[in-house]
Specification:
It contains 23 helices and 19 strands. 38% of the residues lie in helices and 11% in strands. Strand 14 and strand 15 form a beta hairpin. By secondary structure, it is an alpha+beta fold.
């Protein structure tokens, strides 16, 4: 009896401490519950409204549009149409709830059973292998938090989930979840995912497609059909099994749904549009301030012209060679840009990055400098052998026409005449002219520079020709016309600046006259398109590069062809494949434009109307290169000069007297002068309209 009393006295302090601990726990739990309720209410009051959550994006999206508003592609996250809860297919809602949160309808935002199961697996395997997050928790994490695996983040996630359940209905939470969660492939929301993977709206999802999308949430990068179609289908099969186990679908329905037979949307091709966007989009950093808002970028690209440009390059480039094309509108807007025959195999943009010798296409700068110095298209020059220093240029086939006019010399790309003009006016003035018209690469001032020995970019050359087309007004190529937010707020709008004059209008009119003749009767005949075209061919030695650049109806297009390793290409001449590609493209590009005649009327300045026998012309510079600032550059490269093929060895002798006789301008051909000067100084002439030179077919065999 005494022993029982003693044992009872010993147990009494234990019971007392247990009771105290229980009371403390109850009080602490009660206070914690109050604190939790207060915290949930505070968080609930700070949560944005349902409509605000619907409109807020998860990241910046940039939609890139062509000049007509057609979407080229999207950068960053992609958002589809927002679907209301009632518009979402039941199979999609059922699949997501079954696989991600089976007790979704019954928990308050946090699932204690799911958390306990997750902890049990964690203790068994030694690492987190199974999540216990509810759909509400996942939504809170996606909208407000990050994916860091820390207890602090988990606690905030739970608090947010409880608050969201107090503020929003189950239907609203599921609507937000299905429209905002990331599903891989850049797609946020089921509609973006459906369009990305199946090429149709989420309104049309069937059971098999819904199972694929529902299976992506667990690991979008692993199960995305664009990353691993087989893994996506395997995961969809698991989703169907879970749905059957949850009683959402029957065994027969699960059997009929065959994820493996779902037709996936084809991957978008990395086509030639990317040459343009790779060049244009980096300009955004200079046009607008940094922003996280979704943007619409309106570009200058015309998709129809781009398709025509791609087809022209792919169909006309000689085997083993590459090609590039740039088309610039009268205000500088780049309407088409092709940097190679196939973007997928080579994303190197030969239109903007490659530097190659332009050959005779460079002569536009030679003749513009000559016109500015006092020459006119009707002035007489002499095509004959010439030596400047230790350099002796020659024409194709060593054939020389004798006395001809400037127009004819340009149209048939006479090398000796260009060399003599360069020697007369000075190569430094030619380099200055090229700089004015936008050539940014180093310029060779050797005497041979008149034949295009300086490396240039196609974009720069096309820009120069566009400025000629604009009657001597500086044209600056650009690729972006407008940048605006999805709400319509304009962040940038392009404006044309036509205030900078590069040459007098009569110089631009004179060179246009010469280039139109080159297309009508000279080396650029393959570029004819049934309306006025002015242009110039170019071919470098050994046919390493072929060029044609020209304009019509306000659109200027430049074409280059050649090998990346600069090896010769058999039969590649500017007047052949490049000119043909130009014509093929331009026939489509200007088909709906008004036919425009060129203004080639020369209104000469007064100083040209008076004798000026004492006028001095600069001598050619020593053999140096100068950069864009006019500073000399040391180089060790050899000199190549333009020598174009195609002149018949047994054709008639091409001189001005013979041409006049064929065209009925005079009597019998007069005998040639025994020792004509290389270049005859221009004689002052009154203003006049300069007619085009009509050269007969028998003479159309000169070099390009």
């Amino acid at each position: 009896m005494a022993r029982g009393k003693k044992r009872s006295k010993q147990q009494e302090p234990v019971r007392k401490w247990l009771w105290r601990f229980t009371k403390f726990g109850l009080v602490a739990g009660f206070l914690a519950a109050i604190a939790l309720v207060v915290a949930v209410l505070v968080v609930r009051s700070s949560l944005p409204g349902f409509e605000d959550l619907k409109s807020s994006p998860n990241g910046q999206m940039i939609r890139v549009l062509d000049v007509n508003g057609k979407e080229l592609f999207s950068m960053g996250p992609s958002y589809g149409e927002w679907l209301e809860y009632t518009d979402i297919p039941d199979v999609m809602k059922s699949a997501m709830v079954a696989v991600e949160d089976r007790r979704y309808e019954n928990h308050p935002g946090v699932d204690p059973i799911g958390i306990a199961r997750s902890l049990q697996v964690r203790m068994q395997r030694g690492h987190w292998a199974q999540g216990g997050s509810t759909i509400t928790q996942q939504l809170a994490r996606n909208v407000f938090l990050n994916n860091n695996r820390t207890f602090g983040r988990k606690a905030r996630e739970i608090l947010l989930a409880l608050a969201m359940e107090r503020k929003f209905s189950k239907e609203q939470i599921l609507e937000l979840y299905l429209n905002k969660v990331y599903y891989g492939g850049g797609a946020y929301g089921i509609d973006a995912a459906s369009r990305r993977f199946f090429a149709h709206s989420a309104r049309e999802l069937d059971l098999a497609e819904a199972s694929i999308i529902a299976g992506l949430v667990k690991a979008p990068s692993r199960y995305s059909p664009t990353a691993d179609a087989k893994a996506a289908i395997g995961r969809a099969t698991v989703v169907l099994e879970v749905m059957q186990d949850a009683g959402v679908i029957s065994a027969a329905e699960a059997a009929r749904a065959k994820p493996a037979s779902v037709k996936m949307a084809p991957e978008p091709r990395q086509n030639s549009v990317r040459y343009f966007t790779d060049w244009a989009l980096p300009q955004l950093d200079l046009l607008i301030d940094e922003t996280v808002e979704p943007l619409e970028v309106w570009t200058t690209l015309d998709l129809d012209m781009q398709r025509a440009a791609t087809a022209a390059i792919q169909s006309r480039v000689p085997g083993g060679a590459q090609g590039a094309l740039v088309a610039i509108d009268r205000d500088g807007a780049v309407r088409a840009m092709v940097g190679g025959t196939d973007y997928v195999t080579s994303n190197y943009n030969r239109a903007t990055q490659a530097v190659r010798q332009p050959g005779s296409a460079w002569k536009v700068f030679v003749y513009m400098a000559a016109l500015e110095a006092g020459y006119t298209p009707n002035d007489t020059v002499t095509d004959e052998p010439i030596t400047i220093g230790n350099w002796t240029p020659r024409n194709s086939g060593d054939r020389y026409a004798g006395d001809i006019d400037v127009r004819t010399a340009f149209a048939f790309s006479k090398n000796t005449v260009a060399a003599a003009i360069g020697n007369d006016i000075g190569t430094s003035s030619i380099a200055n002219m090229a700089r004015r018209f936008g050539i940014t690469t180093p310029i060779d001032t050797n005497p041979s520079m008149v034949l295009g020995t300086s490396d240039v970019r196609l974009l720069d050359m096309t820009r120069a020709f566009a400025s000629i087309s604009a009657k001597g007004i500086a044209i600056t190529p650009f690729g972006i016309t407008k940048v605006q937010t999805m709400k319509g707020d304009i962040l940038y709008q392009s404006k044309f600046d036509g205030s900078r004059v590069l040459v007098d209008p009569w110089v631009a009119a004179g060179i246009t006259d010469l280039m139109q003749t080159a297309v009508n009767t000279g080396t650029g005949r393959a570029a004819q398109i049934g309306r006025p075209v002015a242009g110039k061919t170019g071919t470098t030695s050994s046919n390493k590069d072929g060029w044609f650049l020209g304009f019509s109806s306000g659109l200027t297009t430049g074409v280059w062809m050649g090998r990346d390793d600069a090896k010769p290409v058999g039969g590649l001449q500017g007047g052949r494949a490049p000119a043909t590609a130009f014509a093929q493209f331009m026939k489509v590009a200007v088909a709906n434009r008004k036919v425009e005649k060129f203004d080639t009327e020369l209104v000469l300045p007064e100083w040209q109307l008076e004798p000026d026998d004492g006028e001095l012309f600069g001598a050619p510079e020593d053999g140096i290169y100068v950069d864009e600032n006019g500073m000399p550059i040391e180089t060790g490269r050899g000199i190549e000069y333009d020598l174009e093929d195609g002149e018949a060895a047994d054709g008639p002798r091409l001189d001005q007297d013979w041409i006049d006789s064929v065209l009925g301008r005079g009597g019998d051909p007069a005998p040639r002068k025994p020792e004509p000067a290389p270049v005859k100084k221009p004689k002052p002439q009154p203003p006049q309209n300069q007619p085009e030179s009509l050269i007969p077919e028998a003479l159309r065999s000169e070099s390009q």
